[in-house]
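Lecture notes, continued. The same structure-token format from the folding unit now serves as the input rather than the output. Read the line below as a description of shape only.
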């Protein structure tokens, strides 16, 4: 698995954008299924409740959503990687700009990567606190959302997975606000948990 980038000294963590989405039908191979990926930006403040952001939907609650996966966060730094991967795959005509929310994330973050996050850490925003839970697992819907069949493999190999958050303190979130990372017990890092999930997936268990 490729090494993760490290944040530069003194960089402030910031919430770049907030996205929500409604479930819609997409084509995954020969199958038609519901997906709420491809979320769109919302001007804040956006209410945050125990099950997630107001106006957001999850199509499959066995995979996304619920109290422990109420909000999905993704580092903005990885978008350059995905734009290049799509370019090399010859993707065109599916929103070439690849706007934030294209990975299905509710929160696009700046200055906080998976390598710096552990299960149990808390993201303290001005009016809300979210707790880090688990990494996102790549699924077939990712291929459809990004427009090329190698997206799942690319996420597995790069480790650019993002992470799920539970709502510790409900409130509101606004694009552009800074936030603080409060360390938890730090027994399981997001990269380590992701590697374990990918290994199990590849073994078919």
């Amino acid at each position: 698995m490729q090494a993760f980038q490290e944040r530069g000294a003194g960089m402030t963590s910031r919430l770049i954008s907030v996205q929500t989405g409604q479930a819609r039908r997409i084509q995954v191979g020969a199958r038609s299924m519901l997906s709420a990926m491809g979320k769109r930006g919302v001007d804040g403040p956006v209410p945050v409740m125990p099950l997630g952001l107001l106006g957001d939907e999850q199509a499959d609650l066995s995979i996304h959503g619920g109290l422990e996966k109420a909000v999905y966060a993704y580092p903005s730094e990885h978008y350059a990687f995905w734009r290049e991967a799509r370019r090399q795959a010859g993707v065109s005509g599916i929103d070439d700009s690849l706007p934030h929310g294209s990975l299905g994330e509710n929160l696009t973050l700046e200055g906080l990567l998976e390598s710096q996050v552990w299960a149990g850490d808390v993201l303290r925003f001005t009016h809300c606190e979210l707790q880090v839970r688990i990494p996102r697992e790549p699924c077939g819907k990712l291929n459809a959302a990004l427009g090329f069949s190698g997206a799942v493999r690319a996420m597995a190999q790069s480790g650019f997975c993002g992470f799920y958050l539970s709502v510790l303190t409900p409130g509101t979130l606004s694009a552009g606000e800074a936030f603080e990372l409060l360390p938890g017990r730090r027994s399981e890092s997001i990269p380590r948990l992701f590697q374990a999930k990918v290994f199990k997936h590849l073994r078919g268990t």
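Point for the exam: The longest helix spans residues 190-203.
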